[in-house]
């Protein structure tokens, strides 16, 4: 039998999970691990019809496979489709994963699956790994501080901080309560620990799912994080008290870039965008002055009300500076996109505004014309911005985005925060301050340049993330030995 590690990777089927898991897959493959990347059949089909189709063909030692997600067309159209997807996968996706691993073992030329790597929100795959008889590793897609805060949701609930007593607690200052007992985390506002503390419902489904999913990582052989040691040293120290094997291999975008540039068997082109990327925005950026453009995106899931969209739009219009704004279909409530922009906005910003439905965000952030990023503080976006050395205006709204934003503005000194209730005056003022020439803006740019250099050093040969990835690959090979021992024991029975 060929003694080669074979990782079967299965992310929760949305962009924020697929993108980092695919990067990890490429990095493992570049270090000699055989890879099977598993999409849902629905996404596989969607990708096959789009620009990413060629990437799906795979190559030597890197294959794509698909399993059903169990959703009906009606489920897919429902406003709570993400919840339905979560429940459906949990209910029905374990057996197809086990069957796939067994089928792969019978295939000529490929080693048997020796480990399962899952993203967050698919903890049922831990059971599948157990059934296959191989160790599991979780790539939890948030920062280390995001992960620790999610772990502590259970304690917050047990200590009575959440659920909130009534609606008034959302606005009466209660969310400013200091939380100073989470090991590794500096004193933070209760509201910054997570969006999930805002519930009034003692049985809140989302809160329970988050805390269960995070705590179930303790069952995995190792925890993989898209961060780097210098960025979050205290929280990583504290985390290692609970999780003996934590692999910090980020920023993944930087690690990919470094591997691609290494020239010897570097990682392949990791791109499985579920949306078509607008190429024209790159040409538009080429024509702009260095550092002059604000890039705006709220990731793949956020939904704004038409009122929020209007405050944002008129705030951007008021600044007189240039901006590139990703308004994806579905960004606005009622499944709307750019058609929901307020009347007169495009005319008022003509010549200094580019609206794209989706773009190649990493390239955009690294473009010399981009000097700032207005973001929802999703972790992938934040890590990409840190690597690109671009300061941020943060408007968090969900899950770990609040704590990411707290660290971006507080600990890392590279951001300004917008209030929860968007006001056009504040949008315009923060836009001006971020892109202007005040002492604060210059300091944020200096800090951003420092973090960019630190991210590059971490992912270069000898850096902490580079070495951590090496240790992970070694551990996967140990998993291989375990699997061989188990197979030998079975043969001997
Ligand atoms: N992204 C992109 N093009 C866009 C907007 C976003 O490629 O126009 C990517 C971005 O680079 C990031 C991901 O989508 O990798 C968004 O992930 P994040 O964790 O920031 O937010 P989520 O979508 O999970 O809320």
Automatic annotation (TrEMBL):
<dbReference type="GO" id="GO:0080044">
    <property type="term" value="F:quercetin 7-O-glucosyltransferase activity"/>
</dbReference>
<comment type="similarity">
    <text>Belongs to the UDP-glycosyltransferase family.</text>
</comment>
<dbReference type="GO" id="GO:0080043">
    <property type="term" value="F:quercetin 3-O-glucosyltransferase activity"/>
</dbReference>
<keyword id="KW-0328">Glycosyltransferase</keyword>
<dbReference type="Pfam" id="PF00201">
    <property type="entry name" value="UDPGT"/>
</dbReference>
<keyword id="KW-0808">Transferase</keyword>
<dbReference type="InterPro" id="IPR002213">
    <property type="entry name" value="UDP_glucos_trans"/>
</dbReference>
<protein>
    <recommendedName>
        <fullName>Glycosyltransferase</fullName>
        <ecNumber>2.4.1.-</ecNumber>
    </recommendedName>
</protein>
<dbReference type="InterPro" id="IPR035595">
    <property type="entry name" value="UDP_glycos_trans_CS"/>
</dbReference>
């Amino acid at each position: 039998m060929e003694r080669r590690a074979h990782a079967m990777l299965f992310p929760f089927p949305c962009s924020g999970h697929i993108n980092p898991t695919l990067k990890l897959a490429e990095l493992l493959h570049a270090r000699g691990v055989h890879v099977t990347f598993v999409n849902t059949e629905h996404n596989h089909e969607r990708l096959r019809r789009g620009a990413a189709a060629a990437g799906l063909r795979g190559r030597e030692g890197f294959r794509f496979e698909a399993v059903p997600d169990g959703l009906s067309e009606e489920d897919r159209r429902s406003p709570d489709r993400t919840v339905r997807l979560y429940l459906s996968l949990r209910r029905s996706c374990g057996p197809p994963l086990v069957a796939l691993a067994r089928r792969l073992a019978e295939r000529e030329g490929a080693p048997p699956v020796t480990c399962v790597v899952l993203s967050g929100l698919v903890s049922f795959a831990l059971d599948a790994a157990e059934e296959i008889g191989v160790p599991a590793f979780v790539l939890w897609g948030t920062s280390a501080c995001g992960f620790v805060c999610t772990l502590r949701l259970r304690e917050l609930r047990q200590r009575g901080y959440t659920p909130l007593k009534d609606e008034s607690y959302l606005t009466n200052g209660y969310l400013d309560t200091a939380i100073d007992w989470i090991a590794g985390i500096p004193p933070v506002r209760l509201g910054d620990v997570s969006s999930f503390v805002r519930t009034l419902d003692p049985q809140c489904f989302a809160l329970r799912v988050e805390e269960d999913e995070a705590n179930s990582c303790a069952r995995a052989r190792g925890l993989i994080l898209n961060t780097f040691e210098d960025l979050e040293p205290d929280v990583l120290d504290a985390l290692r008290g609970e999780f003996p094997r934590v692999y910090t291999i980020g920023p993944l975008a930087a690690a990919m870039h470094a591997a691609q540039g290494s020239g010897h068997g570097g990682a392949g082109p990791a791109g499985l965008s579920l949306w078509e990327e607008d190429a024209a925005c790159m040409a538009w950026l080429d024509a702009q002055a260095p550092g002059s453009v604000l890039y705006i995106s709220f990731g793949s899931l956020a939904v704004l009300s038409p009122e929020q969209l209007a405050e944002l739009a008129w705030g951007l219009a008021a600044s007189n500076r240039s901006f590139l704004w990703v308004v994806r279909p579905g960004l606005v409530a009622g499944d709307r996109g750019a058609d929901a922009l307020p009347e007169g906005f495009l005319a008022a910003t003509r010549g200094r505004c580019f609206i794209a439905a989706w773009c190649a965000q990493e390239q955009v952030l690294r473009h010399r014309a981009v000097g700032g990023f207005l973001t929802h503080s999703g972790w992938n976006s934040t890590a990409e911005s840190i690597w690109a050395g671009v300061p941020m205006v943060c408007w968090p709204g969900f899950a770990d985005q609040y704590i990411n934003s707290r660290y971006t503005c507080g600990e890392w000194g590279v951001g300004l925060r917008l209030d929860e209730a968007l006001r056009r005056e504040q949008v315009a003022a923060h836009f001006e301050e971020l892109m202007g020439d005040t002492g604060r803006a210059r300091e944020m740019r200096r800090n951003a340049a420092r973090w960019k250099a630190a991210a590059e050093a971490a992912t270069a040969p000898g850096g902490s993330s580079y070495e951590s990835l090496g240790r992970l690959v070694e551990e996967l090979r140990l998993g291989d030995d375990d699997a061989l021992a188990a197979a030998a024991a079975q043969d001997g029975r």
